[in-house]
Amino acid sequence: MKLLVIIFLATLFIYLLSSPGETPYNYFTRLSASLLDGKLYITDHPSWLNELIAIGGKYYIVYPPMPAIVLLPSVFLLGQYFSQTIFSIILGAINVVLVYLLFKRLNFSNKTSFFVTIFFAFGTNHWYLASVGSAWFIAHITALFFLLLALFEVSGKKRFLLDALYNFLRFNNFSPLSPYQLIPGIVNDPIFQQGFMNIAYIPRHIEAILLRLPQVQSTWPFLIPSLYSTALWFTSPAFIYIFKAKKSLLTVACWVAIIATLLVVSLWGGVGFAQFGYRFAQDFMPFLLILLAIGIGNKPSKIFYLLWVLSILVNAWGVIMINKLNIYAI
Question: N or C: fewer beta carbons within 10 Å in the chain?
Answer without folding.
Answer: N
